[in-house]
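My main concern about presentation is that the manuscript never shows what a single data entry looks like. An entry of this sort, consisting of the sequence and the corresponding backbone structure tokens, reads as follows:
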Amino acid sequence: MELILLIFRLLLAGVFGVAGLAKSLDRQGTEKALRDFGVPGTLVPALAFLLPLAEIGIAVALLFISTSWYAAIASAALLALFTVAMLYQMARGRNPDCHCFGQVTSTPVSNSTVFRNVVLLLFSSFLISRGAAEQGTPLVSGRDDAFPVVIGLALTALLFTCFQTLVRILRRQDDIVRRIEVMELVARDGGEVERDEAGHPHEGLPIGAHVADFEAKDLSGGKVTLDGLLADKVPLLFLYVSPNCTPCAQLIPDIPDWERRLAGKVRLVFISSGEKKENTAKFGEFAGTIILQNGREVSDVLKAKWTPTAVLVSADGRVLSHPAAGDQAIRELIQQIASNDTNSQYAYFVNGTRDSHMLRVGEAAPNFAVKDISGRVINNDFLGGKRTLVAFWSMTCPHCENMLPALREWDSNRTDADPQLIVFSDGDKEAHENLGLLSPIIIDPGHETAGEFGMYGTPSAVLLDEDARFVTETAIGAPDIWALLGRRK
């Protein structure tokens, strides 16, 4: 029994030690995971610092029989808290990345992660039930029979960590190879090819933005529009492909499986170019709709710059994912979609390839109380019961100045169906009085309050729903801001 207790202590110490060290080495990822689990923004930095320290402290305390019982209680409390948080997120139809072991191995919340926590909780509970006086054999003692077990467990943990690291390296290597293949495809003739118009493959509309309607033709020449595709109220997965795209060809064997896994949940829509004959030969056997572009009329709507790229759009025409560029990123997006509820009110999908700065979809707006330039108090009560566009401005920003006429016109002609507007800015009060906006303008030195709302450069904006919860990520620049409102300027 004493040896079993020692094994349980070592297993728990290994788990908490690796988790704590991994989180401490990836503070940014830890903060994002905490936000995804609904932790208020003001608490995130402190918890991201304290949680790894607590886990490391538990791991160390488990190694000594004098402190093991207290560490077991602490570990059980953390495991119970983590498990409840996971179950709550799954009940809401969300599967955020648990980030339990930092970048060593990080997976979305699922039944398997809950099961793992329950098993570890049983280990902790068993140690607790034995009492402070019966915590097994000391890690270092005069008994030789425990020494081989300790060494064996240590080697097993080391091999497991090495294996996980190797898997990550191989995945990164595969991604690099695919990127090289894309570059070789672009410049296959050996000459330098200018692609300034293409932009970065991971650029796209912000999550939560409305997709503009379009009109195109399918392979049979029939008219296809976004409204028509959404008539069945089923989310759409747009797959931007080309019959001559080498990475696209690597996806073809997987598409029948995707159609099976996503049937009734998501509709596949292929956006291609080139001749009808070659597209029919390449993609014609699949059930999804195939749109044949004349130029980039559909690609430009979602800012899809490269092939292959996938973007998920909700049943009401909002962007639900960052662009997944490349076959590996698309496979990861498909896996996320298959494992989550795409119809959840606050559903969204990221793939780690694009900056998700301050992405708080589903979170409540921060508590605030400020005065606008007219002296009126603006606080959380102002947000309740109506959608709100929170905009971030600067009097020294030329892009803000260019956007001002259109913003002034929209603000003056808003209807009850439009969101209300709040503008956070900096500078002199007098200068802002001349902007001609009817909505509240808050002078926010250092963007202290605006930062809590996700300010990310100027002009930028984020949209809140009637419950004062974020429904979009921060949109940067006038075109993306108007896209949050379903408008084009």
User: Anything to note?
Assistant: Residues 253 and 283 are 11 Å apart (CA to CA). The first strand starts at residue 215 and ends at 218.
